[in-house]
## 1
Amino acid sequence: MARPLPAALAAVLLGTTALAGCTGGGTAAGGASAPAVTTSVPAPTAQVGTVTWNSALGEPASLDPALSSIESASTVVANMCEGLFTFGPGYKSEPALATSVDHPDPLTYVFHLRKGATFWDGKPVTPEDVVYSVRRVLNPALGSSWVGWAAHMKSIEPTGADRVTLKLKQPDVLVPSFFALPSFHVVEKAFAEKAGKAFGTAKGGVMCTGPYKFGAWTQGQNITLTRNDAWWNTAVKPKVKDLKFTFIADPAAQTAALASGDVDGQFNVPRPAHKQLSGKGHLLYGQSLAPTFLSVLNQKGALGDPAARQALQALIDYKGITGSVYQGTAQPLRALVPPAAWGYAGDVYKTAYDALPEPVQDLGKARKLVAGSPRAKQKIVLAYSRAIDEESRIAASIADTAKQAGMNVELKPLTGEQFGAMFASPAARAGVDLFLSTGYLDFPEPLEYYQYFTTGSFYNFAGYSDKEYDAAVASALGTAGPAARARLIVKAQGIMTRDLPTIPIATQYVNVYYGARLTGLVPRQDYLYTPWATTLGGK
């Protein structure tokens, strides 16, 4: 889903070559050296009592897996709650609470549940728990953004002592990938019903099955998880006993906490921290499925005029952003979905992508478009997260350059809580014309992102609508052949590039830092859904 994620921040790789097996490198946009990509690290050998990990976006609003669509929540929940399947390396589907799934016809999936799997309180996982959990996500009253997968769902029912059957109304090639995501994370029905609205809160807690169980949540200070020694997955033995998550959102304070060792690690480390962290621990980079982009939220204001959107696209300093802001660990984007997310039919996607216009700044074009459009001169409110230094700089650059082109862009910095609300609440988006964020695909399938801009989609915040676009996406959802599906998707991609309901800017690497005493964690985008802490431990 098109959910927010702090940008993978830029730097030269510091002190990691002895730790990491790497690929990549070279020269990136702006002439800076691109970092090496870490593909392996030594496995941990020593037990660790407590690891303190910081959430870069601050304190989560909830630990309910159905509401874990924000990085601050996902990073925690991924170690507690599980779906029917999980992602292995390369996004390969692997069994979790289901040992297998049968697909007897294009509309039917039959899950065979794992015998002996229990919740943290020792109660067995039942088909009723699975069905309850999936239906709970679909309840509009809950407001889960994970509802998007189920546009073509007909029913889900228990069909045996260890079986659950899912029926679709029409074929949908995306559905199987969601079996490993929070849309199918299983919670204990009796516990959730008793907790009611308190489920997922500091008071109500959660009840899942994963390798770490909910310990305590001291609001404003930390969340503690404790290792679940009764986890069904006996092939994996976590080395870390307790995880303590802190909520330091200020980049300078993050830097101080990491440098002093008060915090052991963090995903998406701010750029200013790199110099101070040099030689102290391990700063590693991995491939990212994340684009940084502008989303049009208001089609009735200035941006309702295509000329205004085109002017904005033309005035962005892509070279400066990728070279100066991200220091070479980013590339400009020609389309919303980055090349790293082409999980199949790469030749089809590459040919179409290369045919799109190269993103370059053209102030002359921007001024000309603005001069011919009275609406383009109206005020445009641009919202962004003030907790992400790079995005604050990008927003400021856009506002300054817009002024040179004759446009009036007013900046609206958001707190972590306000930023998260933008993805769930129409009221939070009121008065905002343009939204800068870094999203991410959940798996390398471009269709996943493009489907969310069809008419009526949950994430189609501005109400963008194009019949030809909708038809291409709908056809792709029912097309199993990779090359044929890719051709339909690039058709939709071309329409979106023409209409600009979003304006792509760049794609960066995901990064992680952890202290010198630790090892085992390889930076991958799927840390948001897989129990990454089970790989971490002492040397």
## 2
Amino acid sequence: MLGLAGLLAAPGCAHAQSARATALPCPSRAGDIVGLMLEGRGGQAGSVVAFGQAFKAGDLPAGQALQARRENGQPLPVQIDILNRHPDGSARLAIVTLAAPALNNGQAAGVVLFAGTGPAGVLDEAVWGRHQASLEVTGPSGESWTMELLPAGLRGQRFQSGLLALQGRVEAMVPSRAAGGVSSLRVVADVTVQAGGAVQIDAWFRNDIAMRGGGGAARYRARLVLNGKELGRLDIARQPQYTGWGRQAVVAPLGQPPFIRHDVSYLADAGAVARYDLTTGVDDSILAQMARATAAPDWATPFSPRGITQDMSQTGGRSDIGPATQPQVVWLMTGDSRAAAFAIGQAEAAGSIPWHLWDPTGGNGQGGWLDARRWPRLWTDSRGGPPPGGLSQQIPGDGGWTLDSAHQPDLSFVPFLLTGRRAFLDGLQAQAAWCVVSQWPETRGHPANSGPAEGLNVVRSNQVRGAAWSLRQLDNASWASPDGDPNLPYLRTCASSNWAWVRAQLPAWSNEQGELRGCIPGVYGVADVLPPWQQDYFASTAAAAARRGQDDAKVVLAWMSNFLAGRFLSAAKGFDPRDGVAYLIAGSSKGDVARPLRSWAETGQAMRARDLSNGPQWRKTEGDYAQLALQTLAALVDVIGSPEARAAHSWLAGAGAPFTRQQDFRRDPLFNIVPRGAGRCGRS
């Protein structure tokens, strides 16, 4: 085993994210930003591909255009639609659209994106004006309703607008006669017309209208028609309320455009994702299993969970809980299209989770996800009662889903980041908003109270893991949402006020915790113990926010480092560093809230007296707890440059703790996160 000092440096921009992948091109000229790889799927020259791309601050300044060239210097037509910007005005997140060269199946072509000057403009309306698309919806009694998608979808505000692609959105409520007698069903369709004649229609049936009478399960048939030809049909016998179902239909005259492989190290530098170890690789069996799942008949069944854990109260080493899900991490680490298909499929299936709560009069009157400022006493639990304490119609209990904020996966952020598919942004925002209104109002607070986060608090008296994952959702949604999005002010306020509240508690928590200061108090359910792995969960969220410039989160992370690193550096004070990754650490309780003891010596003595200590055999570390600690220490090194965390990481990486070998991370890469410039390659 090697410590941090002995880890091999990860290759630079030219890394190949899987053993079979071609290395990404390196930026080599002034103004170069990042390299990408196009992997051919048989499309002709000029086939258009769109994807999401995060940028580091300053890489694409305001006033400069994005350009693209192949590795051989050949320029490629490119369009950028900037969703939001860094404080300095440079692009932060954007939809990038390329006109690709002809590429046979499996043929690769490197592309470099760079800042410069280039042509601007918008597709001639004649390109899209000749298309006619509609959605026909029929209720169980045979009454029909037709919704025009094209050209209607491109008449208003556009999500993409340039020489290569136009994308707009069309929305409408489905009349109750065509929805099985309910008035909670709406259609949201994103329609795209591209140069070369391709048309994409991403149509979603969102049975999500809340806080109004007439809601309930919808029943309908639907038929999608483009230029007089049927593209698809479906028959929904029952769609529970607060869910969405949709798929993307594509007509591509020039063939299937290439698959995009991103530079994940650059995405980490941009603060978009954690710094995953690209040196270890991923076990082929994981990718093969994903391929089998997406090929199975039930994958295409409407409302199939597609491998998502439906009972979210389930605990244990779940592959869907972390800074990202395991399929998303595999996609990031390998750039493999099999992992991409699986993760994208789960993002679609996330629409079936009943946490989509749409308020038609929210979002500053434009419509938005349910807002705790508009509904300050609302609680989505059935115990909330009738409005305004609860929902007009309760979340259905017969849809197969059990919601739990302490065990919620983020199924939407990475797919939106990498694809730019707007429906996934909807899912991300809906889940983030649910994280607030699902909290009991007595702990969430009331807007009339003084202090930050009152009425929006997701940390106070919550499980630490519940606070971690709720803040993860709020941070991701506020970071990814476009400037001008009607949901953004609320989501940004929720995230920033919670971090401000946590920071305001640090002096009092330090006084209470003494030598072990650095623990976020939270409800656990077992008296006088502290689960350190929940602190690791929270640290991963704090690190993600700090990477993106959230100052309060960075202060919180630095405060936490005293405990997170100190648990491995306090042997001289009587605390065995192996116990830093024990399942439980001896602590105390104040009511239901778990807190640490005040000294390492007292804690070490209590660990041995209560039979919580690992001893020499790691007998209390039987899960992924060492992996969790390693990713925390890596983040502390990466984000705040902590020398104590560096020393602790070096010790733990070489200590032989369970599930910390290279092959362990190959088989389960969920927390395969390392400090900048380090990798596990060579460790056995």
## 3
Amino acid sequence: MNFELSEEQQMMRESFARFLDQESSTVRVRAAMPSGFDKQMWNGLAELGAFSVRVPEEAGGLGLGLLDAALLMEEAGRTLASGPVAETLVAARLLALLGGQAELLERVTTGAAVVSLAFHDIAQQPRQWVAGGAVAEAVIARDGKNILLLSVPESARGGEDNLASTPVAELALKEFPRTVLSSNGEGHIIFSQALEEWKLLIGAALAGLGRESLRLAAAYASERKQFGQFIGQFQAISHPLADLVCEVDGGKFLVWKAIRHIADGAPEAGAAVSIAAWWNSEAASRAVAQALHTFGGYGLTTEYDIFLFNLRAKAWPLVFGDPQRLLQEAGRRLYGGERAVLVLPDAGDCPVDFDLGDDARSITKEINAFFEKNVTPEMREKFHYSWEGYNPEIHQKLAEADLLFPGLPKDMGGRGLKTYAKIAAMDAFEHQGYNTPAANVAQMVSLIIYRFGTDELKREVLTKLMKGEAIASLGYSEPGSGSDVFAAQCKATQEPDGSWRIDGTKMFTSGANLASYVLMLCRTNTEVAKHAGLTMFIVPLKAQGVTVQPVHTFQDERTNITFYDGVRIPDSWRLGPVDAGVKTMAASLELEHGGGFSKVQRAMLKAAEQMCREISFEGRPLIEDRTAQSRLARSTANLWVSDMLTFRAQWTIAEKKQNLGYGPMAKMFSSEKFLTDSRDLLDLTAPYSLSKRAGPAGFLNQCYRHAQGTTIYGGTSEVHRSMIAERGLGMPRTRA
């Protein structure tokens, strides 16, 4: 897996960024209004080779890949470049591939001429809105089977006042002088490829624009005071921005994913292009609206630059038409047989890669073979995402097969898999329908004991956990503290003989009814700050004074409230120094960074697809309905973004890169989309989804109930939003 650009791409991006920061500053953008075209900036871009990026080398261009062009467009979007950059990039490549226009091509690549595109067949739409039509001397268009170069008379380039002061114009294309560039099927394919390329480039531009608008909003919220506080300290301000930075970053990665799919010839490549264009149009629109709202009344004035982002975020994609049609197109490409394989552009060099590698494929194969050999249909019937699915026999056999703890290092008896293979292992378990919270918690507890436990604990407890002979539960939350684990009041008092007496209550002690031990965070000092007076212990759940009381949820998941009344444990069962429980607990968190819910999102989507094929709607399978296809495509988009955010978090950890809250982004985004999609897919497949019968209907039903908890446990979405705002957007702390 690789999220890092090549050295050449980084240099190119930095070069364009420096140029555009100066030549497309908001001062310059304003100066270019109302025409929306900055000739000096345009010429400078040409001198840097911008319009030659996608022109093949044999035609005198740079011959670079789609990702290179997307990086350029991200910077153009970030700086609101005044001119039809995406359209001219694509038109220059078209002129080169179709041939016969060497002189015009040279004028385009040197900035002397602007050539744009007509997106729709002029045989059907003779009058069209054209991006850059107010400054273009020519437009490339499709007329049935012919690909034409239409000369735009100077008298027709007037343009008109429009939403974002861009050089857009409605042109009577049928009336203009024409040159036939191609009259065969190959030219038609090349033109269709150009349209797909434009979708990716405008998506990249919108991702850059959206990210910059959020940066401006976060910076303003970090300096603007209201009621004696920076407004960025108010969660009502910071949390929506945190949501949107996930969507905007996800949009950029959808462009990258589409390019990677094209390079690999993946069957989903065409749909990925449509989804990337649709998603970025939506995400940028929401981002700029929230960014402007952050500025309050000042955002409505022309004194602040945020209005420029707001208007261009809408204007750029709308020249193509309603963005919702792109989602419909994605639905047809995914579920209606419209694969678009032949109309995708050449991707060129693409160093970003989301393949998990050979080790990942090997562990997946091994896990699948284990389940085929050791798991019976009767066992499968009792699988469940929660602790209710715990099977002691499978658990112990996984330990014997060295598959129980893939993330633990070999020197403590784990499998020692690298990061990407660990992701694949978890995917393989999910594919088999076997979720392993018991193993995941045992893994955490084992790691803490290994690092902080006494020899006695390692001998008495760690050995049993590693062999799969016992499991452990977590005793963090309490009835009055919830996610604020540092507010724990369950008390541990040291007795004269050095042992400890534990008194108090723990809430949501899931698995305590099945486990042999609980990892306990207890209050040992009330005279210091709350986070500094905690100590970690291992407590046997069969000890005298422990009571486990069930708490049932509507998710078919049992949790527990546990009571500790004078429970005695030796000091040797303490983990780490007294009053240093927070540091001890932190050792377990490294196993949770970057996690999300894309695995169950994927399983849920597959179940919905299956039901849509089985349900009859107006005399045909529901999967053939355009609305159903669009809704499934939207869930696909949410799944892909969840995947990409999780991959980035995992890659950042594995490669030791700067981490700006990427783990919380993956967890928060995926849990929220799991929740919204579970509702929508339940609606889509109603009334069959009401049933708890075995099969896809029962699984969708369960997903709806399961999803409610994912935004709560493991840290609520609100906690993660605060972390994202602080780490990812540099906003002030929103928690006391």
## 4
Amino acid sequence: MKTPTKTFIFFISICIFLAFTSGCTNTLHGDVVSINNGKIKLGFERSTGKLISFSDIATSYEYIDSAAVEGLPWLLDVAAGTPAPEKLPTKVSFQKPDPLTLNIEWQQADGTNGLKVIASVSLDKEKALSYWNIKVEGMGEQNIQNVKFPVIAGIKDLGNEELAAATWLGSLIKNPRAEVVKQKTPATYTWNHPGHLSMQLMALYNKESSGIYFSCNDTLAYTKNFSLTFDTNNKLEYSITNIPPFDNRIDSYQPAYQAILGSFRGDWITAAKMYREWGIQQKWCRESRFKNNLTAEWLPQTGIWVWNRGKSPNVLPEAIDLQERAGVPVNVFWHWWHNCSYDDYFPEYLPPREGGKSFIEAVTAARQKGVRSIVYMNSFQWGTSTDSWKSENAEPYCAKTIDGKTYEHAYNIFTNKSITPMCMATEFWQNKYASLCDSVINFYQASGVYMDQACMNFQCYDKSHGHDLGGGNYWINGFQKLTSLIRSKITDKKQSILAGEGSGEDWISNLDLFLTLETSRERYAGISNIESIPLYQAVYHDYAITYGSYSSLVYPPYDELWPAQYSPANKEKALPEDFNSQFLMEQSRAFVWGMQPTIANYHAFLAKDRKEEIDFLIKLVKTRYKALGYLLYGEYCRTPEINIPNQEIDISKLSIYVGRTGNNVSKFKKTVPSLYTGTWKSPDGAIGIALASISDKQLPVDFTINLSDYDLPSEGEVYVTTDSTRLLLQTYAHSKANIHFDMPARGVCVLEFIPKQ
């Protein structure tokens, strides 16, 4: 997993500040132009066009502190080194074409031609949502690089705030303002979409009172950034950075989508359900490979993924061993099979490092035993130190920054050799990568390719590539062409898959499988006020298969092609038993969040040395395998309130890139739930609640569920499904079930609520 390099771009922000009209206040009726739909109300200052009011009518809650609003709901950025506009539009006018729509226009104060900004804000007829459009005219040679809109300033502290963001699988940031005040440093959270923001969704809320729904309805995957800025004075500003094509021949710009701002009461699950209502109607879901049964038939049947690295003896026999122990299909997610050193000599993957003949024989023999392999190849990086970089003249086809430079970056701390992203929109890279996939799948007999960094998006400013410069949707369009080209070359299309790092709605129709690592977030990010949540699962679980975790019982491996002097002595040896509970936690999260389980760096000796943990994993995957209607094909639902005790566990933060120091594990403490839960509705209308205990003690489970909340009939039966049994627990009537049972130590089960036929 990697983080994209920062672009070496500096912006000159043109912040337009207008003084209040003398003697007037924002509260006077004549100074505010407003629209409302009976759900929400928006108010704009008449003299300036500032957004000074956003209120929920039902709760009478006002989200904006008008005294904290200093600027307009839009900002323009020009690129560094280019001239700023001489005149800015300051004269504002309003029109109401209908009761739910407000058009706002900013023109030149002296009536001359020049920059003009036109905004249109409309309210939903039935929901507490507003839709925001902007158009910038008279751009001429202004070199406008970004259009920030809407800019929602002065957002009040909601109290006990939580910020949910669709960062691939999902992140929940608790009390973000309190952390900023504590650190006495302003903080800006910025995510790119499509990219690290897997959906156009963020939500800031107090789950006991009110919340703000931030979204967008882009169906064509134009690049944009979502930002929330907290300052030390408790002020908050939200904005979307829209990125027009960087071309001074373009006189006007209007995004091909709307920003969405709304009010709601609830939590991140509430926001996810709001978004799902829109999301599953879009093209990516209609063309979902999983939903349309276009994935290889073995993929949904996968019981466990083994994520091992190196030559085949370190990978395939271990997967076969685990399959024999677990009795479910096991497949391999395979790094470091390739000829080149990891993270510096891409894409010189072929032939396999152990030799082509050995590799083919090993892969074929494993497949005959039911174990299939997908192999690692980065989806766009090329090493600038490789022979092929020069011999194949790759540099003209790599992505460029606005000043014509590459995004070159050294991930490999042992060699410090750089790699740089190729432009996904170029036929050169599409043909190069598709040719590699052709060889790997058709000749070397792999069952698929894992495309690292797939769900990412770069802005490219190279005029020779033939796409819009900077802004646009050429990256996703190029990725779609790439995957189509790969599949056109695959001989056995029904048995091969393409997987990718991350998750993203715009990739659902292109990839078969998504690696989402947030179940093991602590291993790469340590402990903070950010928690992983299954936000993506709550929206798209039944449209996209997810897997992946750094969850491991051993120290990290070390690539044999890296410098030997940095190789740690403890590589792939068992971690201290202190971290066993962390492994249980990670596997429990994946189970209840509806993911295909993954174990990293599995070795047969663990079945003895870490018997309880491997037995737990096997129990978990066997239970999941009996409940695929919920945990693979089901829709995420809210879990009934269950009183769950917490416990403190040891947490390891580790990496393949800390071998240089000899200390490749950092240790923390964390308080976590003793019982993990996730609720799912199967396609046939039953409800399944997955439960996994990491406690070494028996836990009482006691809760009441109202089945009408899940649109189930009033009568039915409750079963307990485990790895070895499925027993009737009780019946229910009148749409309610009072559940009482004891969860065994480290127990795993699915409670099934089956409607009466």
